[in-house]
């Protein structure tokens, strides 16, 4: 009953911002000290702004595999409560009006700073990816099509570039699931190489939230799940973002 | 962009040259095809100072170059594409000759060297052969951001992967990486990654590293890794 209530709220949130009523819903995880419910995080974080370009959309470089799986999940955003997470050039675009905890970072805005996984502008050359989040289960799927600039072993994806995308997917999932912000631990076991240009699917789950830490896992595999490319786990520290009244 | 086009063309010409029965070099012991340019092509060495390098990075670079003078340390050059020998070790192992790789590979380049000066990964690795350890000086540029103002954890993971790999020799693959992040790294700052080979067991290499600030007062992260030597006798299928 609680779960259905959430799903309804998320679907509402996805289509437009809700007024202060969002905070009236009961917290999903009563043990957590972090007050923002998943659905309020989703509605805040996933507003599809018109100002900044949203990279989590198909372009000409997307192969048929990537496109068909994307459309499958797009359908699920209409029926099953999944949320397509917008993706901007900088994470700053997600947190407009909020500031990072003191001492954490330079709060100055540099316009040329870019999110690492959106650093390669040319379509199809670097990271082509989109993340879908399921709030009721605290899990995500990331569809990843790597381009030639991500090469490591000739013809295949650089292990570090995959690690970076897994960390990025963890980071979005952790934030939406409970304000997980900074990576404290990251572990990856590479099993098979991903050929450049092919589709890889990252399945991320929040395993546990305890003592201000979120524990996530990821299995990266081929679409038919016959080949496991890598398994990873990550721990994120939960940190609350405060509203930045000076900027509003 | 022009550079990558011409490099791509060169590699296709080199390929055609070999197919038409060009004389084989004495180093060419394996029957594999050369998919990259021959040694005659001049590759740019990216592990050298450029205008985007901060004062800290240049200072450290000079200190280590001094250490290279007596031969105890050496600077490792770094190219966008692997040397022909390195490529051959991998290509016999992995690439299926039936696939049309030329077009795809002519665009491909090493992930960390695909950025304009100062925007991405600026790094240089110095190796101490006697002690089997390396020091990597790394300056992460504005395109490596995660949380605003901070270096992306994944960019740090990429550099740790590279730094650990630099302690190995020949064709290797990363099997595992485990990283503990202690403190976030401010974007555009310089860090020092000290890596070493802890243990060698057959084809398994166990390595570890730490990431510190230039003054060594801040420990940003610690990591361990397992790398595996590629066996040229076996194909991965």
From TrEMBL, chain A:
One of its GO terms (cellular component) is mitochondrial matrix. It comes from the Eukaryota. One of its GO terms (biological process) is long-chain fatty-acyl-CoA metabolic process. Residues 155-225 form the Thioesterase domain. It holds the Pfam family 4HBT. GO terms for molecular function: long-chain fatty acyl-CoA hydrolase activity. This is Acyl-coenzyme A thioesterase THEM5. It comes from Bison bison bison. The gene is THEM5.
Automatic annotation (TrEMBL), chain B:
The keyword Mitochondrion applies. InterPro entries: HotDog_dom_sf, THEM4/THEM5_acyl-CoA_thioest, Thioestr_dom. It is an enzyme of class 3 (hydrolase). GO terms for cellular component: cytosol; mitochondrial inner membrane; mitochondrial intermembrane space; ruffle membrane. It is a peripheral membrane protein. It is found in: Cell projection, Ruffle membrane; Cytoplasm; Mitochondrion inner membrane; Mitochondrion intermembrane space. It catalyses: decanoyl-CoA + H2O = decanoate + CoA + H(+); tetradecanoyl-CoA + H2O = tetradecanoate + CoA + H(+); (9Z)-octadecenoyl-CoA + H2O = (9Z)-octadecenoate + CoA + H(+); dodecanoyl-CoA + H2O = dodecanoate + CoA + H(+). It holds the Pfam family 4HBT. Its EC number is 3.1.2.2. CDD domains: PaaI_thioesterase (cd03443). Residues 149-218 form the Thioesterase domain. GO terms for biological process: fatty acid metabolic process; negative regulation of phosphatidylinositol 3-kinase/protein kinase B signal transduction; regulation of mitochondrial membrane permeability involved in apoptotic process. Keywords: Apoptosis, Cell membrane, Cell projection, Cytoplasm, Fatty acid metabolism, Hydrolase, Lipid metabolism, Membrane, Mitochondrion, Mitochondrion inner membrane, Transit peptide. One of its GO terms (molecular function) is long-chain fatty acyl-CoA hydrolase activity. Belongs to the THEM4/THEM5 thioesterase family. This is Acyl-coenzyme A thioesterase THEM4.
């Amino acid at each position: 009953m609680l779960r259905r209530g959430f799903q309804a709220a998320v679907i509402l949130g996805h289509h437009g911002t809700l007024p202060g009523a969002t905070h009236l819903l009961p917290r999903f995880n009563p043990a957590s000290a972090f007050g923002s419910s998943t659905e309020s995080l989703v509605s805040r974080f996933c507003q599809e702004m018109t100002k900044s370009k949203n990279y989590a959309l198909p372009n000409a470089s997307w192969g048929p595999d990537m496109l068909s799986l994307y459309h499958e999940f797009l359908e699920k955003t209409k029926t099953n409560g999944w949320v397509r997470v917008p993706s901007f050039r900088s994470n700053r675009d997600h947190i407009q009006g909020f500031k990072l905890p003191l001492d954490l970072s330079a709060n100055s805005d540099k316009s040329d700073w870019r999110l690492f996984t959106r650093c390669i502008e040319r379509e199809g050359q670097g990271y082509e990816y989109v993340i879908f989040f399921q709030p009721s289960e605290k899990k995500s799927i990331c569809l990843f099509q790597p381009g030639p600039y991500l090469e490591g072993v000739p013809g295949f994806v650089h292990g570090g570039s995959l690690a970076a995308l897994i960390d990025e997917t963890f980071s979005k999932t952790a934030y939406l699931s409970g304000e997980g912000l900074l990576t404290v631990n990251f572990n990856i076991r590479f099993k098979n190489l991903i050929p450049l240009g092919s589709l890889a699917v990252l399945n991320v789950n929040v395993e546990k939230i305890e003592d201000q830490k979120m524990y996530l896992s990821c299995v990266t595999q081929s679409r038919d799940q016959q080949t496991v490319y890598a398994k990873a786990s990550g721990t994120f520290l939960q940190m609350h973002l405060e509203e930045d009244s000076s900027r509003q | 962009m022009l550079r990558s086009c011409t490099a791509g063309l060169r590699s296709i010409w080199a390929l055609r040259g070999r197919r038409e029965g060009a004389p084989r070099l004495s180093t060419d012991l394996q029957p594999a095809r050369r998919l990259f340019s021959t040694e005659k092509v001049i590759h740019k060495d990216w592990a050298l100072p450029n205008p985007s390098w901060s004062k800290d990075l240049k200072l450290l670079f000079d200190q280590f170059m001094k250490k290279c003078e007596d031969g105890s340390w050496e600077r490792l050059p770094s190219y966008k594409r692997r040397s022909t020998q390195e490529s051959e070790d991998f290509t016999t192992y992995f690439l299926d000759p039936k696939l049309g790789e030329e077009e795809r590979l002519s665009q491909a380049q090493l992930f960390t060297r695909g950025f304009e000066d100062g925007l991405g990964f600026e790094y240089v690795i110095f190796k101490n052969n006697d002690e089997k350890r390396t020091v990597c000086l790394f300056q992460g540029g504005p395109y490596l951001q995660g949380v605003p103002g901070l270096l992306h954890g994944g960019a740090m993971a990429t550099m740790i992967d590279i730094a650990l790999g630099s302690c190995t020799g020949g064709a290797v693959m990363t099997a595992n990486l485990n990283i503990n992040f202690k403190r976030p790294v401010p974007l555009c700052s310089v860090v020092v990654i000290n890596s070493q080979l802890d243990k060698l067991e057959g084809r398994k290499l166990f390595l570890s590293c730490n990431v510190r600030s230039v003054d060594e007062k801040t420990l940003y992260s610690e990591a361990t890794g397992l790398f595996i030597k590629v066996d040229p006798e076996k194909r991965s299928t």
